[in-house]
Amino acid sequence: MESFEVAVVGMGALGSAAAYQLARRGAKVVAFEQYELGHVRGASHDTSRIVRTSYGATQYVRLAQSAYRDWADLEAESGERLLTITGGVIFLPIAGPYSASDFTSALEECDVPHELLSPSEVQERWPQFRVPEGVETVYTADTGIAHAARTVATLQMRARVHGADIRDRTQVEALIPDGDGVIVRTAGGDIRAGKVVVAADAWTNALLEPLGAAIPLDVMQEQVTYFQSASPEEHGSDRFPVWIWEDDECYYGFPTYGEPTIKAARDVSFNRMTPAERTYVPSPELTTQLGEFVHGLIPDAGPEMRTVTCQYALTPDRRFILSPLHEHPDIIVALAAGHGFKFTPAIGRILAELALDGESTDDISMFAAPAPAASR
Ligand SMILES: Cc1cc2nc3c(=O)[nH]c(=O)nc-3n(C[C@H](O)[C@H](O)[C@H](O)COP(=O)(O)OP(=O)(O)OC[C@H]3O[C@@H](n4cnc5c(N)ncnc54)[C@H](O)[C@@H]3O)c2cc1C
């Protein structure tokens, strides 16, 4: 049987980053992807993802600060430009469930420059927005955009350059830990690995359930819409920021990015579907709802051009899981709960550290796997 130090299951953003960081450290690594590389059935395709430090919890702010260093390292190592810094605003209705002070205090504690703005100050700086009274806005200059598909392709290419054995169109059917590592059963035969990194997002429990280690996941089809900006020059990243609206219903959007459109979406649509049930067809109700919201906030957004579907697998309270399983410590699980792309190169490094060193240089105490079902 072939034998490897580490096997990676899933070559979306997280698995590709893990394979890259493992191979770069000289580990003998094999990585499996059930579909073709770059497919659009998971969570890591399409153009843009928001990168930011502005979170309402210091642990995420610190991890984001760490990730910015890993992005710079990846860009330097690959020669690829993957991040575009645009500045970003988070709109927080005072009557809503989230408070601007959570964000400003976390940013202060982590020494991240930021501003707290009133609706009139937002209006003055970005007349493209219509922000109602009673909304506080947190601005951070370091917010920007990562190119999703290009980042994943770059990680996969660099992983191969460093010696990773990447096998696409090869599904992992089962994991059989036997105390001396794990037998990985694939459509292409069995291999043995000292450690296994499971970065399978919405498909994770298909492998963990048989091990009695399933993790509660709320899986749904998400969608994003590209609007044909009525005035693209006004929505360029030199004068229009990344924006997030944090309220009972959350929305987010981007300046123009590589085309004269502005992209926007609702975050957590509750359009529940397992991977097997996915339709890949956008919901007209969600498209209409989004259009109404966006045209209220950005009157010049223009008509819908196209809508792309994607997938969320949400852990309880959307906390990451970056941790070995209690029951099977040779199996390390990575779940980013629908907000992990900005951390991709850092999560890859952390997974490599967990697999090779047994611990991470980052504080990931908050991201432990849930205790075994019996003791929950
Ligand atoms: C619409 C949308 C917008 C988002 N916006 C942002 C944002 O602005 N900022 C941000 O930080 N994050 C954002 N995210 C979240 C981010 O994109 C995800 O957290 C991240 O892409 C998850 O990557 P992943 O590798 O875990 O999952 P995936 O990309 O889904 O990868 C999992 C892979 O595992 C493979 N796989 C599963 N089971 C097996 C098996 N048994 N054998 C072999 N292969 C298998 C799958 O085929 C898949 O390729 C967004 C996500 C969506 C959907």
TrEMBL record:
Matches recorded under PANTHER family: FAD DEPENDENT OXIDOREDUCTASE DOMAIN-CONTAINING PROTEIN, PEROXISOMAL SARCOSINE OXIDASE
Xref: NCBIfam families: PRK11259.1 (NF008425)
Pfam families noted in UniProt: DAO
Protein name in UniProt: N-methyltryptophan oxidase
Underlying gene: solA
InterPro entries: FAD-dep_OxRdtase (IPR006076), FAD/NAD-bd_sf (IPR036188), MTOX (IPR045170)
Cofactor(s) the protein requires to work: FAD
Source species: Microbacterium murale
Entry keyword set: FAD, Flavoprotein, Oxidoreductase
FAD dependent oxidoreductase domain span: 6-354
